[in-house]
Amino acid sequence: MLSEDYIYMETGNKVIDEAVQGSATTIESKGNGNRKVYIESYGCQMNFSDSEIVASILVKDGFDTTKDLQEADLVLVNTCSIREKAEQTVRNRLQSFQHVKKAKPEMIVGVLGCMAERLKSKFLEEEKLVDIVVGPDAYRDLPNLVKQVDEGKKAVNVILSKEETYADISPVRLLSNGVSAFISITRGCDNMCTFCVVPFTRGRERSRNPETILNEAKELFEKGFREVTLLGQNVDSYLWYGKEGLKKDYKNLSDEEKEKSMNFGQLMEQVALISPKLRVRFSTSHPKDITDEFLAIMAKYDNICKYIHLPFQSGNTRVLEKMNRGYTREWYMGRVDKIKEVMPDCAISADIIAGFCSETAEEHKDTLSMMEYVKYDFSYMFKYSERPNTAAAKKFEDDVPEDEKSRRLSEIVALQRDHSLEANQGYVGKTFEVLIEKLSKRNDQELAGRTSQNTVVVFPKENYKVGDYVTVKVHSCTGGTLLGKAI
Ligand code: 5AD
Ligand code: SF4
Fold first, then answer.
1. Quick check: is 212 in a domain?
2. Which of 198, 272, 444, 468 has the greatest number of C-beta atoms within 10 Å?
3. Pair (293, 326) in one structural domain
4. Residues 405 and 265 placed together within one structural domain of the fold
5. How confident is the model at residue 1 (pLDDT cuts 50, 70, 90)?
6. What mean pLDDT comes out for the span 404-408?
7. What is the side-by-side order of every strand in the sheet holding 307-309?
8. Quick one: which atom of ligand 1 is closest to the CA of 313?
9. Is the pLDDT reported for residue 8 higher than 60?
10. Domain span at residue 213?
11. Best of 117, 196, 283 to mutate for ligand 2, by most ligand atoms within 8 A of CB?
């Protein structure tokens, strides 16, 4: 799954128990009298990527985008349901829009994404906070839904699709620094981890036409972008077989479909071949599906970043089975061994859940020992949060007391803090190729970029600029950042 599911936007050792982040669009309106849309995104990278698709659909319909809520005619919130706290954040935000709406009653408020899908028309009936409710597969219908609201109705479309991948839509790059961009390659998830709401909110898994993915990546490179991140809940199960449709396994393809097929490794290779100056990242990998073939391709190309986000969730095989993750502790360790064998310099990060149903204190220790085994560069760490209608909610008791969940989470966080610092200390004295992404937040005489391993490096600006590749020697570090100097 994409951690927050993927919020996986920033590096650093983050506890995302409450850190569902909102972020407004950054494109200024063109000031030509068109109606203006303001979009705020919460949750995973996929949501941020979807918001760019939504912006593209609305711009085509005559809207301009704005980052100023006050001047918006249409306010959209792209939402996350992954944990209860994520939903509460969005509810609070929708409440605050009500105040703006008092002064400006004609302003339309719409809710997009996973919460829209999960709550459907309940959003209109019970919560009375919004005019439009649109699920992740219905964004093409937005212009029509806005029209319905203009006519005085409320509008809902939460139909999930077996084909929709928005393959032909060229996203408006809302949040981009002009250097890195997201490209969605799959939608939905078929894995049915018992704790997870995503298969219900994002529907069945579909792979996007590779031609459209490659064209999008090429266009981005031509526009000056230097990094793309291929996104999916489980990128390793990407499989194109000639047409848009539900996920199939390779063994079930017809001869004709096999002929046309492309798997994730093959897709990665094609993207990597666009230019050695285009970095390729991907998220999220699934331990049960990441193949040796893919790891070999990753190792072969310098521009495929040496960084894998490989959630393990729990270090205990009984708990993993109860989570329906499809692998054991030993299998996961075997995948890590293989990664380290073929790419000794590859960084690995994880998602970890503390206090899943019936997890004992001893089983929790297996999670800590897994962390010791792998020594993750960083992790996204969560307390288990029961989600309505998931298999876990239906079949298991959420029986680890809240204070015990907190205790386990704090042990996990403390250990990760040590490991992140250790990992960064290991980088001190070494040199890295860094892709410059922005001015440093703290000092405008410094630039910030990332290494292939996804670690943030800050160094004096000199004459370098955003979008350049530069070789930096690291001289010191904190737990989250490397400090260095260009050489
Ligand atoms: N409770 C806590 N964490 C969860 N995740 C997914 N569902 C839940 C839940 N119900 C975490 C998993 C996943 C990440 C995106 O969010 O670790 O990989
Ligand atoms: Fe990820 Fe499992 Fe949720 Fe799919 S069901 S999104 S693999 S955690």
1. yes
2. 198
3. yes
4. yes
5. low
6. 98
7. 14-15, 378-383, 347-354, 307-309
8. 17
9. no
10. 180-423
11. 196
